[in-house]
Design brief:
mainly alpha, 153 residues, 5 helices, rod-shaped
């Protein structure tokens, strides 16, 4: 598969609904690090005298870099929201459990595990988003390095 087809595949993965998970993002990162892809891209850009084709490839790389950077920032924001919501909801349910224990102790036996479950659920979702944000950032950084290498030659 040529460099243009690899870029098309990456663009398709990023447009997917639902968006790619951590495993798919890892495959994208591996494609960006694949020596065969980098060598094919370098050869393609050096062998062609077609300025429009070179410009189109460079624009696609820049667009992918921006998209992955934006997606990394969005994942980081959502992760923070999940973390805060989980801590807030879990803490408030724990306080309610303690208050309920004064009047009806059996209620706290129901509410306390629910609070812990809620906090853990939000925390786990935040970890997943943090992992995806890091992978998006790695892809964006790698694309930036590829652009630097292209412009340095």
């Amino acid at each position: 598969m040529g460099p243009e087809q690899v870029l098309e595949q990456i663009e398709a993965w990023l447009r997917d609904n639902p968006p790619p998970d951590a495993a798919s993002l890892s495959r994208i990162r591996e494609a960006m690090d694949d020596y065969a892809f980098l060598a094919a891209l370098r050869t393609r850009l050096r062998s062609e005298n077609n300025i429009e084709m070179k410009d189109r490839i460079l624009r696609r790389i820049v667009a992918l870099m921006r998209t992955t950077g934006d997606l990394a920032a969005a994942r980081r924001i959502h992760s923070d929201i999940y973390g805060r919501a989980g801590i807030g909801a879990g803490a408030s349910l724990m306080v309610a459990s303690v208050a309920a224990a004064i009047h009806a102790p059996f209620i706290s036996l129901i509410v306390a595990p629910g609070a812990l479950w809620m906090a853990w659920t939000f925390y786990a979702a935040g970890l997943k988003l943090n992992t995806e944000a890091e992978l998006y950032r790695n892809i964006s950084d790698r694309l930036g390095k590829i652009l630097e290498a292209i412009h340095a030659k």
